[in-house]
């Protein structure tokens, strides 16, 4: 790889054929391809065990075809009247919004905390008081975990139902509360990747069983439910995870610890170098240190600084992305009905936000090239002087990968 070859924003890291083979052979032997086959069941048990290691109570998991369908089904399972209002943060991926609309509800787009970029109980309480919202999707934006115990007591005290969208949070987001469903993604770009897929974690067994049913069209699967098995109980969807996706997820989990360590150490190093090179020019999302970072997103002081960095990275063939933008309420007017609350903090954050290249195999040289680019863009120095400096620094570190 040349010193100046392009640096992509992310490179998915999925298991290779050798790691997949034992699971694919199991599929061949089982001749079970979907509909809660043995690999899917085993995956749910494995995942529940991982969450139980971080909880003081039994955990239950059901797999789904994506986090988006998981969010839709989790919302549907709340049995709220059609047209109910659901608070979502302005700063999130569009799937949080589409899930609300497709579940038959109306999104209330609310502001986020200026420091940790997440919804807070105060924001949800105020948004619900002024709109009549009866539920909220709290998002672990950029993988920053949310406090499930805090949201559980909020739910109990206010009657506002909470669903957590932790699509990119596997490894950093744990589930301490028994009554708050948490939805994860296994999309190819996530730290636990199956290509496509997702799962929902909850301490409530009945809730998880209900979601399983909804993911299978809403057909009753329980002989003791007072209704014959095979009868439709609700209008569900087909959101089942196939055995092939479960196979990939198993192989990903087998390599999980090693990938998680690589992600964490690359992220720490990146962040330290950015802080050394740019000091106060970078505003970081506040919160806990991520155990398994999935992306790296920085905030600059204003939109001009962000544009300057984008242009500079483009010249250097370094990919960047304005993650989670436009903010939800700035999408097409066709996305309606939608209630938009004032979002001054989210607007301020979004104006300077930029995702930088981050992936499990990112090399030290790539990290240093990005850090140099950021340092050059945020400083007032002339780029050509900086370029020589950059070359010199790369020379110094060319033995590090
Ligand atoms: C916050 C958030 N919610 C939901 C999703 C959707 O996940 P999936 O692709 O598994 O449907 C994503 C995907 O990146 C996300 O970032």
What does this structure look like?
This protein is an alpha/beta fold and 401 residues long. It folds into two domains: 17-254, Type I PLP-dependent aspartate aminotransferase-like (Major domain) (Aspartate Aminotransferase, domain 2); 256-394, Aspartate Aminotransferase, domain 1 (Alpha-Beta Complex), CATH 3.90.1150.10. Helices cover 42% and strands 11% of the residues. The protein is built from 13 helices and ten strands. It has helices at residues 17-30, 38-52, 67-76, 94-102, 121-131, 148-158, 205-215, 243-254, 256-278, 303-315, 344-352, 364-378, 383-397, and strands spanning 60-64, 85-89, 106-110, 135-139, 161-165, 182-185, 198-202, 296-299, 339-340, 353-356. The strands form two sheets. An eight-stranded mixed sheet has the order 1-7-6-5-4-2-3-9, sandwiched between helices. α9 (256-278) runs parallel beside α12. The protein is globular, with a radius of gyration of 22 Å. Pyridoxal-5'-phosphate (PLP) is lined by residues 66-68, 92-93, 95-96, 139, 165, 167-168, 185, 187, 198.
Number of domains: 2
Radius of gyration: 22 Å
Q: Which fold name is given in CATH as the topology of the largest domain?
A: Aspartate Aminotransferase, domain 2
Overall helicity = 40-55%
At a glance:
With 401 residues, the protein is of the alpha/beta class. It is 42% helix and 11% strand.
